[in-house]
Amino acid sequence: MKKGFLLAQLLCLCVLLCACAPRAAEPVKPDEAQLTVVGFSQVGAESDWRLGNTSSMVQAFSAENGYRLILEDAQQKQEKQITAIRNFINQGVDYIVLAPTTENGWDTVLSEARAAGIPVILVDRRIEVEDESLFTCWVGSDFRREGDTAARWMEENLPETLRIVHLQGNIGSSAQIGRTEGLMAALQKHPGWELVFQAPGDFTQAKGQELIESLLREKTAFDVIYSENDNMAYGAIDALKAAGLTPGRDVSILSFDASAAALRLVLSGEINLDVECNPLHGPRVRAIIEQLRRGETPAKYTYVDETSFDAENLTEGIIVQRGY
Ligand code: AHR
Q1: Is 92 helix (H, G, I), strand (E, B) or coil?
Q2: Domain count across the chain
């Protein structure tokens, strides 16, 4: 009898202890209605840079951080971005973030966003509009400076007589415009530099490879490939290797973005210079939105600090810490 009573008391104690014991911290589910809604119109998924950029935005605008991100991939088509922005307006999002495909053609749809009272933040590439008050601010890279950096490296490291192949990004995008301008300005200054080929490779590996393969088939001779992003450089490298050439030695390769995979190729000598273009804009855009929510005015234009890498300054440690 006594034993049974004791057992019952022990059981009660256990139940009580379990009820009072602190539980393993469970994530607090954010209240959907409290989340700030951000519509993000992304260019596409054409490059490693772009994938790094999307994932930076998704991480920055998580529910844990108080946001609901509506992500629309435009597959490199401006019409799709215009439709996405109109959808964001209809959905009544709190903020629109636009990574524009090209610089022109935004006046009408951004006027619609303004009429709906939705601030528009631009990220990565820039736009040309009649009225700059159509967007709140921009954060991204100085693409012309990137082009000048690559051209300066060529001046300092390559012979005065050069046959150059130029793989361009999407025509009309700021990344293409700035990087092309850098090369064109340098060509003016160097009579020994000859542009033997120039064509858009759409920032994709497949197109970069296709263009170089066709040049090799036609037996076009060249010394340098100026590739306006890493993915086109990867394609070019594959084409050169398939033709029995050694990239970085038989043909010098200059590229842009400096993603981890490309920096490995700088270390192995297949890419001679990679100019950094940093895609980790998520925290930057979130900081802008937080400024706006506090009633502050962010800077109209914010350039990200960037550098360039060649065999002289690149280390394994830099690659490990890349983040894209
Ligand atoms: O606008 C940035 C450019 O777009 C990157 O260099 C390229 O890789 C991307 O697709």
Answers
A1: coil
A2: 2
CB proximity list for 145: less than 8 A, separation 6 or greater: 178, 182, 306
Residue 99 located in a structural domain: yes
In a domain, 26, yes or no: no
In a domain, 224, yes or no: yes
Pocket test for ligand 1, best of 48, 81, 124 (most atoms within 8 A of CB): 124
* Nearest one of 164, 174, 166, 116 to 143, comparing CA atoms: 174
pLDDT tens for the chain, residues 1 to 324: 344 444 445 444 434 444 444 455 555 667 888 999 999 999 999 999 999 999 999 999 999 999 999 999 999 999 999 999 999 999 999 999 999 999 999 999 999 999 999 999 999 999 999 999 999 999 999 999 999 999 999 999 999 999 999 999 999 999 999 999 999 999 999 999 999 999 999 999 999 999 999 999 999 999 999 999 999 999 999 999 999 999 999 999 999 999 999 999 999 999 999 999 999 999 999 999 999 999 999 999 999 999 999 999 999 999 999 999
- Residue 202 CA to ligand 1 center (angstroms) comes to 10
Report DSSP letters for 177-199, one per residue.
HHHHHHHHHHHHH-TTEEEEEEE
What CATH number should be reported for the domain holding residue 93?
A: 3.40.50.2300
Q: Does ligand 1 have an atom closer than 6 angstroms to the CB of 277?
A: yes
- Residue 46: domain span: 32-140+279-293
171 lies in the same domain as 271: yes
CA-closest residue to ligand 1 atom 3: 175
Same structural domain, 65 and 184: no
- Model pTM? 0.90
Q: How far is CA 197 from CA 33, 167, 213, 256, in A?
A: 55, 8, 13, 18
124 lines ligand 1 (CB under 6 A): yes
Q: What's the 301 CA to ligand 1 centre distance in angstroms?
A: 19
Q: Residue 215: which residues within 8 A CB-CB, separation 6 or more? A: 165, 197, 222
In a mutational test of the pocket of ligand 1, which residue from 98, 139, 176, 229 has the highest number of ligand atoms less than 8 Å from its CB?
229
Domain for residue 13, yes or no? no
